[in-house]
Amino acid sequence: MTDQIIREVPAPNPLAGQEESVLYIPALGEPILRVNNIQGNILGGFNKDYQTLLFLEIENSNAFKEWLKTQIKFIATASEVIAFNRIFKFARERRGREGTVKATWVNIAFSFQGLKKLTQDANNFTDEAFKAGLAARAAELNDPVDNEGKPTGWVVGGPDNGKVDVVLIVASDEHTDLLEEVSRILKSIVIFTDEKGHAKSSGAKITFIEEGANLPPPLTGHEHFGNLDGISQPGIRGRVSDNPKDLLTPRQDPKNPNQGKPGQDVLWPGEFVFGYEGQNANAQQLENSRGAIASAGPEWADDGSYLVFRRLRQDVFKFHKFLNDTAANLNADPRKVSAKLIGRWPSGAPTVRTPEADSPNLGNDDNANNDFEFNGDDPAVNGFFKNDVVPPSKDATGLRCPFIAHTRKTYPRNDKTPGGEGPGPQEIDRSEVTTQTHRLLRRGIPYGPVSASTPDEPLKDPNFVDRGLHFLAYQTSIVDQFEFVTKFWSNNPDFSTEAATGHEFEGQLTLGHDPIIGQNKGQNGDRTRKFFIHLEDNDSQPLTKELTAPEDWVIPTGGGYFFAPSISALKNVLT
To answer: Distance between CA 128 and CA 533 in Å, rounded?
Structure first.
């Protein structure tokens, strides 16, 4: 299948015919990434319509190592995935349709407890969150927990769900191909035979399996609430070959070599893969923020990455009902309320650029839908808003994109933050430098059936339906990336006081929880969240209003912290 397609057909030069284009700017000072040794989903991203997560417990370490040896050849590398993604893109553009080429990929990652069963130096990992595990950190993340601090309602990864030592990610362009590869893996676990055909134990037990999928039209590329997902991903510095123009993230703006596509800052690869320089949190400017080489602890961990998995159930009806009720009270459109809570319209168009109406053309333009900043102001029209502003678009006031909006809370761009170290000429630059040390490479996909509910007509399922998001993200510090964003930004109603100060409404800072994924751990189980939004109502009158959400719409129901090792580590250390 995929293994044969990629390995039997030599990939053409990924930049064939474009080496001389001014759109591909060389980057001689950036590292050559060891893409043949890095797992494919980390840097390349599988980007498939169908994906299955398969969780295992290691019951017999020696037997499992024998089984794992037989699976390494099926683990997709970054080299394979990047080459395929480029071929897929070029074929689609040339033929005007998808389906010309297809692939099925497999990647693997291990929990700390899983690594301890396979190697004696697992304790050398330095990330305390990884070593503790997500379930043990749930209370710190404001997840619902019982009186003993155990997460409640989890179906995978919790203390009562069976052990999770390993996660296999299987992804494919075709559902039948996905099922075939999953079947191959399951059969190899249950009925394992060595190279001589002798029956043996795989040493593993299946503890959980669940399928995710891209939603069908018209929600393709969207999450269950109805919003385009995965738009703002960081660019990554580094080359994938000796060719100085063969960049992982091509620089497409001759005026700004520090961005990939407009608005996409490129970061040093050590933020996401061990063994390379990361960002320097003490730098004065983002353009000169090359930092030290990132290390996980063990030397063999280079070319690996931490993987965070969160199973997030989405209560679509309750979210849509909140939008509808709020819109009725404010004399506004429910989708406009949603846009102000998220920071983007359903199409993906950012409210910084088009605050009062959706713009599908802008949302579909990946050279424009991320081209904006927060700090600084465009001239106002009639003292308030301005639609379809040309870049560089800004919004220091929080009027176009509220300070509480999900996209602003999780990625404040050049907003003033505590990392700016207080008022002064360097506050904005230092804020942006530190913000970029908290980024994530997100690889999520929805799970569960589509809801018939819409913001205009909220509809409750007659029976309980489990739907949501398999949140997956790669990084080199769970503490400083995933957990930092969750604890200090999304869950913190006072973030960011620095950005909102000077833009108060009737003497109040217009702050609050992230209304989408933010969680509040109040007394006696109180989950109430409050947040301010700004919008124009149906009569074009500006409104600033504090809203109250009495319950969560996104509920954690499982997860884990994992490490995705290099191919060489799989061969030489873990088997």
So the answer is: 36
